[in-house]
Amino acid sequence: MSTIFVDFILEFPATRLLRIETIMIQELRNGLLVACLLIVTCSSTSMAANWEVGLSRLDITPTEPLRLSGYGNRTKPFEGIDTPLNVRCMAMRTAGNNEKEQGLIHILLSVDTIGFPAELTTEILKLVEKKHPVSRERFVICCTHSHTTPHIPRALVNIFTIPVTKQEDEKLLAYSNF
Fold first, then answer.
1. How far is C-alpha 49 from the chain's CA centre?
2. In terms of DSSP H, where are the helices of 3-109?
3. What is the C-alpha to C-alpha distance for residues 152 and 169, in angstroms, rounded to an integer?
4. Which 3 state secondary structure label does DSSP give 36?
5. Rounded to a whole number, what is the largest CA-CA distance in the chain?
6. Are strands 23-25 and 51-59 parallel, antiparallel or unpaired?
7. Which residues contact residue 125 at a Cβ distance below 8 angstroms, ignoring those fewer than 6 apart?
8. Which of 8, 18, 46, 57 is the most buried (most CB within 10 A)?
9. What is the Cα–Cα distance from 154 to 117, expressed in whole angstroms?
10. What is the mean pLDDT for each group of 10 consecutive residues in the chain (178 residues)?
11. Where is 129: in which H helix or E strand?
């Protein structure tokens, strides 16, 4: 896995991205995703606008063994960790000199998991809305669809041939609750 340090993401002829600090992107495809999203966003709005962009990553690797999702024949928790799991976030808005001039916030989250139930997306949005003015139309959660991540109890409830035990379910709920 290559590591790329990026001092800037992309500069358009009529648009400059402001206030972007050096970030680390672990895979080239993440950088390409950001570039594509910026192209789409900037092409659909005023090309003369300056943008503020924030990027972050949070490690969500479980601290104790949990049953993984993705295959119905899994009957026990994982035995080790090969690769950390993350949530990545990109927040964007048009820049302004003061709060009144700043544009609407757009947020994209990418979660290392097989899938996400709608109710969990709604819960996360409600937490974000308490601190930032973000509407549902400008808030997106996508998943990497990995079959080697913990089972999310509120999603794929009938996936396992041998259902999770009450103790397993409590641990999985604790992992996915905020």
1. 25
2. 28-43
3. 9
4. helix
5. 58
6. unpaired
7. 134, 136, 139
8. 57
9. 6
10. 26 29 37 57 56 91 92 89 93 79 86 88 90 90 92 81 90 85
11. helix 118-129
Asked if residue 81 lies in contact with residue 59, where contact means CB atoms within 8 angstroms, the answer is: no
Are residues 171 and 163 in contact, defined by beta-carbon separation less than 8 angstroms? no
48 contacts: CB under 8 Å, gap ≥ 6 = 14, 15
Rounded to whole angstroms, the Cα distance separating 109 from 48 reads 26
Tokens of 3: 């590591």
Closest to 132 (Cα-Cα) out of 176, 175, 89, 85: 89
**Contact 151/115 with Cβ under 8 angstroms?**
no
**Whether the Cβ atoms of residue 112 and residue 139 lie closer than 8 Å to each other:** no
Please tell me the predicted confidence (pLDDT) of residue 32.
52
DSSP letter at 68 equals B
E strand spans, 97-164: 106-111, 139-143
Alpha carbon distance 109, 86 (integer Å)? 10
Q: What tokens appear for 6 in the block?
A: 């990026």
Q: At 110, list the tokens.
A: 């990418």
Contact (Cβ atoms closer than 8 angstroms) between residue 55 and residue 87: no
